Amino acid sequence: MSVFGVTGQDSHADDLRAALSAYSVDTRGLIADASRPTTTKTRVIAAHQQVVRVDEEATHPISTEIADAVLKAVREYLTNAGAISGAIVISDYAKGFLTPPLLDAVIGEARRAGKRVFADPKGADAARYRGVFLLKPNRLELGLLTGLPTDTHAQVLAAGSRLAGIMPGAHILITEGSDGMTLLTESQPPEHIAPMPRQVFDVTGAGDTVLAVVAMAVTAGASWSQTMRLAAEAAGIAIGQMGSVAVSLESLRFLGDRGD
Predict the structure, then answer these.
(1) Is residue 189 in a domain?
(2) Does some domain include residue 223?
(3) Domain range spanning residue 54?
(4) What is the structure's pLDDT at 47?
(5) pLDDT at position 51, please?
(6) pLDDT tens digits for 186-195?
(7) Mean pLDDT of all residues belonging to the chain
(8) Residue 27, domain member (yes or no)
(9) Over 90: is that where the pLDDT of 91 sits?
(10) Residue 31 pairs with which residues in a beta bridge?
(11) Alpha carbons 177 and 172: distance in angstroms, whole number
(12) Most CB atoms within 10 A, among 130, 147, 162, 244?
């Protein structure tokens, strides 16, 4: 597994690389940029609840030179991956890293290499994600992308259908919090699963967890119903603990052993 992004030239970048390396993640795609700090989020917690969060970050667009270095690293990854199953997973946080030219180039390179692209969007411009295999907005993001209300499941279905029409060929997976998740495509009926009841401690990282598990499961050949159940279970594990949690493969294997 490889990770691509931009960091500052600071101790937080060193900590990030060390943490990723501990999970055997290749960090050569993390490009250092002296013009910005490594994005750092400091959370103040009281009685198992986040009271306030302080972010240290810069959100100006990365330079052409940094973008070229990232794209070179992506191309090397795709070349080395060869025919091995794999995917590109894009989590857009609107921090200046995924400029329109870089995003378009990465999606194009992945498609030419026969790799599916799974993306979590940010902002109101759906055209940025043209060519992805799957787009995973939450209700708020779906509303921004379509300009439609998304407060209820019925409204989500209407907005999701519009987004599927805007994104021909893409699967649209909408996470709906306590209402579960819904999958829509341009020509298939919606598929919906309701979540198992969970005690929520911290939703940090739940969306990224869903996206990662969906990419893993689909790439491994799981059906959509299996994929959505696995992703919902992984999200439930993540929100049941404090902080950003890496859901282990063993916990997902346990779900499979139960026959769910």
Answers:
(1) no
(2) no
(3) 1-85
(4) 77
(5) 85
(6) 778 999 998 7
(7) 89
(8) yes
(9) yes
(10) 6
(11) 16
(12) 162
